[in-house]
Amino acid sequence: MDNSKSEESSLLEFIGEGCFGKVAKCVNMNTNENTAIKILKDPFRVKLIDFGLAMPASEVWEGMIVQPCAYRAPEVSL
Prior knowledge:
The protein is mostly beta strands. It has a domain at 9-40. The chain has strands at residues 9-17, 21-28, 34-40. β1 (9-17) and β2 (21-28) form a beta hairpin.
C-alpha cells in the first residue's frame, strides 16, 4: 500500500469502515507513535436544529419543552 503523507502523519493501512467513513492506522512522523484517524465520507455535511425557538439559557428550566416533538428531527430525539 502506498503511504499517503501529510505534514505530520503517514497512512499505514485502513483498519475499519462504518457508515460515517473509514478508520486508518497512521504513524505520527514527529513522535513515531501509531494513531488512528477517522476519514469522514461527508466531512462538510452538517445537520442543524431549527433555531427559530432559540432563547437564552437563563430563560430555560429543566423539563421545559422548547420544540414540539412532531417537528423535531429524528436524530435529535436519540
